[in-house]
């Protein structure tokens, strides 16, 4: 399987983004390749396109499956397994966010909650706890907001995101009205 320069550029960029999403470069490249192919790809197809070993492909597929980002398909009279993205781009973004929350935010919230239960022993710990409390509240707010967003349809979510700065301007206007009273 030969990649055009545009497709190769996208796939390589997905590799770089993969490391920011929480998995390694090769796994990111594999997912990028799967996203832009209309037909499901076999492990051999992926291996040849990215010039990586079949073992590397196998480990990458397992990683993508643990993130629930790929699905396995079979073709009639063909023993090979074929892989494709598990859902739409919106669903992929939701899963990546959800997995990152589970792997990064939830353990942090757990640690913060445990630390906030203890009574501070001195002024230094009291200050530390106040900072941890702010971090906890911020993470809780962001997590709750993100959970609400995940329940929205892609159309509603897209509309909300397009509102962007407009929402901020409405809030600023509301604050000005309240402060005038």
What's the main sheet like? 3 strands, antiparallel
Given this structure, which CATH class of the largest domain is correct?
Mainly Alpha
Number of structural units classed as domains:
2
Distance between the termini: 68 Å
Order of helices and strands: HHEHHEEHHHH
Instruction: Tell me how many strands there are.
Output: 3
Q: Examine the coordinates and then state which fold CATH places here, giving the name of the CATH topology of the largest domain.
A: Arc Repressor Mutant, subunit A
Strand percent estimate: 5-15%
Shape: extended
| Total helical segments | 8
Architecture per CATH nomenclature, i.e. the level-2 architecture of the largest domain:
Orthogonal Bundle
Bin the helical content: over 70%
Mean pLDDT: 91
Which residues form runs of ≥5 with pLDDT under 50? none
What is the CA-atom radius of gyration, in angstroms?
Answer: 22 Å
CATH superfamily membership of the largest domain: Winged helix-like DNA-binding domain superfamily/Winged helix DNA-binding domain
Q: Given the helix and strand composition, which structural class is it? A: mainly alpha
Walk across the major sheet and give the strand order. Answer: 1-3-2
Keywords: DNA-binding, Transcription, Transcription regulation
Protein name: HTH-type transcriptional regulator
Family: Belongs to the GbsR family.
Pfam family, one: MarR_2
């Amino acid at each position: 399987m030969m990649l055009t320069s545009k497709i190769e550029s996208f796939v390589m960029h997905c590799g770089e983004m993969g490391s920011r999403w929480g998995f390694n470069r090769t796994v990111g490249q594999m997912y990028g390749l799967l996203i832009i192919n209309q037909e499901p790809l076999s492990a051999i197809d992926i291996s040849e396109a990215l010039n990586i070993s079949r073992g590397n492909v196998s480990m990458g597929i397992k990683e993508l499956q643990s993130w629930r980002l790929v699905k396995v398909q079979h073709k009639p009279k063909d023993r090979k397994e074929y892989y494709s993205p598990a859902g739409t781009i919106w669903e992929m973004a939701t899963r990546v966010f959800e997995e990152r929350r589970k792997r990064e935010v939830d353990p942090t919230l757990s640690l913060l909650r445990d630390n906030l239960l203890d009574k501070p022993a001195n002024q230094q710990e009291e200050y530390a706890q106040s900072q941890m409390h702010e971090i906890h509240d911020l993470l809780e707010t962001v997590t709750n907001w993100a959970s609400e967003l995940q329940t929205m349809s892609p159309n509603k979510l897209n509309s909300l995101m397009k509102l962007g700065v407009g929402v901020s301007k409405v809030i600023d206007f509301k604050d000005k009205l309240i402060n005038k009273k």
